[in-house]
């Protein structure tokens, strides 16, 4: 999808979210009941954004509250609140859109539709703090993953000598068993050869036979 098409989809989603606030109905219900502004131009991406915001509304509001520096979400202008929900959802759940694009698009919408003259600065500040927070979490996840790999490698190295020692012990045990079996076979062979030697000695001595 071209960037211009997604820009239009965000504009449409913002209109529907604003409509849901005015009607006091969830955004997905507004769409399902056909209460969408005629000029909204509903498309697949806009629908995904709308239903995503509706299904994660409580989480999105908590995130906005944490990043808005003591600005209660219910005291924000309606347009700003709807726009932040839309942008935060895209930042957290739409992986193929760069963070900078999501923030820039939200700032432009705030300039055009924002409830206050400084709405675009407010929106930019909230989303910027969220972006830094998400980037910090990604770095922490990477560090924890790397640490886990190091611990696994260390554990494998500690187990390796023990396995090698066990293998050597098994080989030595096999050698001992083989040597013992060879010794027993040699003794058995000697036991079997003694009667034959006696018989040969007896038959070789005529005088003994005569006696």
List the helices and strands and how they pair.
Elements: H1 3-23, H2 27-32, H3 44-55, H4 57-67, H5 78-93, H6 99-113, H7 119-204, H8 206-210
Structural summary, described in words:
By secondary structure, the protein is mostly helical. The chain is built from eight helices and no strands. Helix 1 (3-23) packs across helix 5, helix 5 (78-93) packs parallel to helix 7 and helix 6 (99-113) runs antiparallel to helix 7 (119-204).
The percent range for strand residues is under 5%
Q: Which class of secondary structure composition applies to the elements?
A: mainly alpha
The low-confidence parts are 159-164, 185-211
Specify the biggest β-sheet. Answer: none
Share in helix:
over 70%
Radius of gyration: 42 Å
In terms of quaternary structure, what is this? Answer: single chain
State the separation between the terminal residues, measured CA to CA.
121 Å
> Average pLDDT, to the nearest integer?
76
Count of β-strands: 0
Globally, the shape reads globular
What's the helix count? 8
Helix and strand pattern: HHHHHHHH
Short description:
The chain has 211 residues and is mainly alpha-helical. The protein is built from eight helices and no strands.
Which short descriptors sum up this protein?
211 residues, mainly alpha, 8 helices, 82% helix, globular
């Amino acid at each position: 999808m071209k960037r211009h098409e997604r820009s239009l989809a965000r504009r449409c989603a913002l209109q529907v979210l604003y409509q849901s606030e005015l009607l006091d109905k969830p955004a997905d219900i507004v769409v399902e009941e056909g209460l969408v502004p005629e000029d909204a131009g509903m498309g697949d991406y806009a629908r995904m954004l709308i239903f995503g915001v509706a299904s994660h509304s409580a989480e999105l509001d908590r995130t906005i509250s944490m990043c808005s520096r003591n600005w209660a979400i219910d005291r924000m202008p309606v347009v700003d609140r709807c726009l932040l929900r839309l942008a935060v959802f895209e930042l957290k759940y739409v992986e193929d859109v760069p963070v900078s694009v999501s923030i820039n698009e939200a700032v432009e919408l705030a300039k055009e539709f924002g409830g206050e003259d400084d709405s675009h600065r407010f929106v930019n500040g909230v989303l910027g703090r969220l972006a830094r927070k998400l980037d910090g979490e990604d770095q922490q996840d990477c560090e924890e993953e790397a640490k886990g790999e190091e611990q696994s490698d260390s554990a494998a190295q500690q187990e390796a000598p023990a396995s090698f020692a066990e293998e050597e012990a098994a080989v030595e045990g096999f050698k001992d068993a083989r040597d013992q079996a060879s010794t027993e076979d040699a003794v058995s062979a000697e036991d079997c050869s003694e009667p034959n030697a006696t018989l040969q000695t007896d038959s070789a001595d005529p005088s003994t036979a005569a006696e």
